[in-house]
Amino acid sequence: MPVSPITLYFDFSSPYAYLASRLIEDIAARHDRGIEWVPMLLGPVFAATGARPLVEQPLKGDYALHDMQRSARYHGVPFRVPQPFPIATHQAARVALALQREQPALATPWIHAVFDAYFTQGRNVADMPVLHALGAELGLSAERIDAFCADAQVKAALRANVERALGAGVCGAPFFVVDDEAFWGVDRLPQLERWLQARF
Amino acid sequence: MPVSPITLYFDFSSPYAYLASRLIEDIAARHDRGIEWVPMLLGPVFAATGARPLVEQPLKGDYALHDMQRSARYHGVPFRVPQPFPIATHQAARVALALQREQPALATPWIHAVFDAYFTQGRNVADMPVLHALGAELGLSAERIDAFCADAQVKAALRANVERALGAGVCGAPFFVVDDEAFWGVDRLPQLERWLQARF
């Protein structure tokens, strides 16, 4: 019986999704699962749940800034507090979606490249020149990146991912679904792994 | 050099604080730390952070109901979804505070008794008759419980705990402080324990 992949809903501006992007592949490999990366946008999710961006919330914002850095150290993942934060990530997400459709071998490298640029190199991945530079490292021309971002089908696919996320009950990022079981947060990876082992 | 205790801010209506109450003592014992239990109220914390009770939030509420049950299974802690939820917990908190002052040996047993009544036995610990019954099991008369709840100094002490929590940056429950390092959530206990070991 073929096993389904681990579905990972993410927004490129989520530090915890970045941490998850660095941790999920080892977990998936240990359990012979693939990963379905689903770029989406937290803005509409926050609108649905009534949440605001983490750092704009009194008390929680200060705590979160500290927690994201300590969580990175805890997991041994390089991390730099992004500035500005949060940012618009629809262009980076569109490129990811277009690559998943047209050149799937580059899609996951793109996802890692965007996350790393923003969360380890301090580069603003909302800026097209930054996306052009990241594309160049993968052999993608600036024209191709621009075409992905302007493509009506790609735009529609991103909107569809957001709808899919809301339909799946996604209330933040990272959000995982494994065999219909939902896990929210990088801090739920131990439970996700236990689920893969033993469906406790 | 004497070591400071692990400070645990909690509200009796928080399922995750209940889980923490079942897990923190082993962690503290492993690292020769005491525990300072700080009953407080999430209402004013939510007012400060702009949050609403978990189950009232679209998407998050459904997820949380599922997550709290799975988290209990993950940690091997008995759990029953409380009903009604959330509830007013100021009376149970006042008794805890009064015992901490007047009969400290009973304070932690009271805290566990209230949590267990609500989260494993389905008893509504907002009701005075339930608190009377829990008190009776510890040898406390109903009159004494009532007197604790009506005591102006105890009421003031609970308000002071809430102020202290807000001043300490408490943004939810459970919230831990160890040597000025803050941890929010039962899911941060692994980081808290690493901190006790290695201040990573």
Describe this structure in words.
2 copies of one chain form a homodimer. The first copy, chain A, has 200 residues and is of the alpha+beta class. Chain A has one domain (6-198): Glutaredoxin. In chain A, 57% of the residues lie in helices and 9% in strands. Chain A is built from 9 helices and 4 strands, in the order βαβαααααααββα. The first copy, chain A, has helices at 15-30, 42-49, 60-75, 90-102, 104-119, 128-137, 142-150, 152-167, 189-198, and strands spanning 6-10, 35-39, 175-178, 181-184. A 4-stranded mixed β-sheet of chain A has the order 2-1-3-4, with helices on both faces. In chain A, helix 6 packs across helix 7. Chain A is globular, with a radius of gyration of 16 Å. The model of chain A has no long low-confidence stretch (mean pLDDT 95). At the A-B interface, helix 2, helix 3 and helix 9 of A face helix 2, helix 3 and helix 9 of B.
Describe, in short, the structure shown.
The first copy, chain A, has 200 residues and is of the alpha+beta class. Chain A contains nine helices and four strands, in the order E-H-E-H-H-H-H-H-H-H-E-E-H.
Overall 3D shape of chain A: globular
| CATH class wording of chain A | Alpha Beta
CATH superfamily of chain A: Glutaredoxin
* Number of contiguous helices of chain A: 9
Assembly level: homodimer
Helix/strand-derived category of chain A reads alpha+beta
Biggest sheet: strand arrangement of chain A: 2-1-3-4
Output the radius of gyration of chain A: 16 Å
The most extensive interface between chains reads: A-B, 32 and 32 residues
Q: What is the average per-residue confidence, as pLDDT of chain A, rounded to a whole number? A: 95
Query: What would you say the CATH architecture of chain A is?
Result: 3-Layer(aba) Sandwich
Q: Regions of chain A with pLDDT < 50 over 5+ consecutive residues?
A: none
**Count of β-strands of chain A:** 4
Q: Helicity level of chain A, as a percent range? A: 55-70%
Order of helices and strands of chain A: EHEHHHHHHHEEH
CATH topology description of chain A: Glutaredoxin
Largest sheet descriptor of chain A: 4 strands, mixed
In the residues of chain A, how many domains can be counted? 1
